[in-house]
Design goal:
Layout: H1 5-12, H2 15-29, H3 34-61, H4 63-85, H5 88-108, H6 117-147, H7 158-194, H8 246-275
Helix pairs in contact: 3-4, 3-8, 4-7, 4-8, 5-6, 5-7, 6-7, 7-8
């Protein structure tokens, strides 16, 4: 019965007190291991530097294979942690996104290409971009809302509002990355199928100025005009497409590295520490 007393006291503690107790036990457990911890930190820094060099060289020399492997890991790695940690809310959104995007990719890679497919692909990924951008901004505002203490006026706990902000920010950035990468794959396949662009070969068709490079239909709205249903966008290559914000694109690149490659790098570090007998 005496052995159960500490366990009962731990159950009566608040979340903050319990976390503090566990933190103190961790310090007691690893006391006197400063040299070992310094070794582990050096291994972590060295692995991060080497991994960064390898990834940069891979991306510069073989960009297409790098993007494909990164996209595959972006798709699979969160699924592993979702199932392991029982994040059913993320799993449900991930499942819906995966099913619809798989169908869109299937339609975009068919030959011959339907005249309605490019418009469907464009609208779907434009919707993903707008939703992810909006959710990410709301999540960021919720985090700032909590950091400045405005949650007190609405009687919302800081932990709850911060959790909501972080989750929404992650959702916005993650699906923004996935949508942009899949949109590039679909656009490459469709452009090659239509004939205005052919990877590694000459294009088989010429593009008129009043024809959309995505769907091949006639353009009725000029670039400078505001359309009723759709607007016309023009890039520096004179092709029409939606133009994303530069800073938002950099955030998506950062998240791609964090989600796709960081777990693998941490796994390599754990493997090295285990082989050297470090704890």
């Amino acid at each position: 019965m005496a052995g159960l007393q500490p366990q009962d006291d731990l159950l009566k503690m608040s979340h903050r007190e319990s976390w503090k107790m566990q933190h103190e036990r961790l310090h007691v457990k690893h006391r006197g291991h400063e040299a070992m911890h310094a070794e582990m930190v050096l291994i972590l820094i060295a692995t991060l530097v080497v991994a960064q060099i390898v990834l940069v060289q891979w991306k510069q020399r073989h960009c297409r294979s790098y993007n494909m492997v990164t996209l595959l890991q972006m798709w699979v790695v969160p699924l592993y942690f979702t199932i392991k940690l029982y994040w059913w809310r993320f799993l449900s959104t991930w499942g819906m996104f995966s099913v619809i995007t798989s169908y869109v990719i299937f339609r975009a890679t068919r030959k011959p290409l339907s005249c309605r497919t490019p418009r469907m692909v464009y609208k779907w990924f434009l919707l993903i971009y707008k939703l992810s951008y909006a959710v990410g901004v709301i999540g960021y505002l919720a985090i700032m809302f909590t950091m400045f203490g405005f949650n007190v006026f609405f009687r919302i706990k800081a932990e709850d509002s911060m959790d909501v902000g972080v989750i929404m920010l992650f959702y916005g950035l993650y699906y923004g990355v996935m949508g942009r990468d899949f949109a590039e794959i679909c656009s490459d396949y469709m452009a090659s199928t239509i004939g205005y662009y052919n990877m590694g070969d000459m294009p088989s068709r010429n593009l008129n100025n009043d024809v959309c490079a995505v769907c091949g239909q006639k353009i009725f709205v000029d670039v400078d005009e505001e359309g009723i249903i759709e607007d016309t966008y023009q890039l520096s290559c004179n092709h029409t497409w939606e133009r994303t914000h530069v800073l938002y694109g950099q955030l998506l690149d950062w998240l791609r590295y964090l989600v796709a490659w960081q777990p693998i790098i941490i796994g390599i570090v754990h493997g090295i520490n285990f082989s050297l007998g470090l704890e």
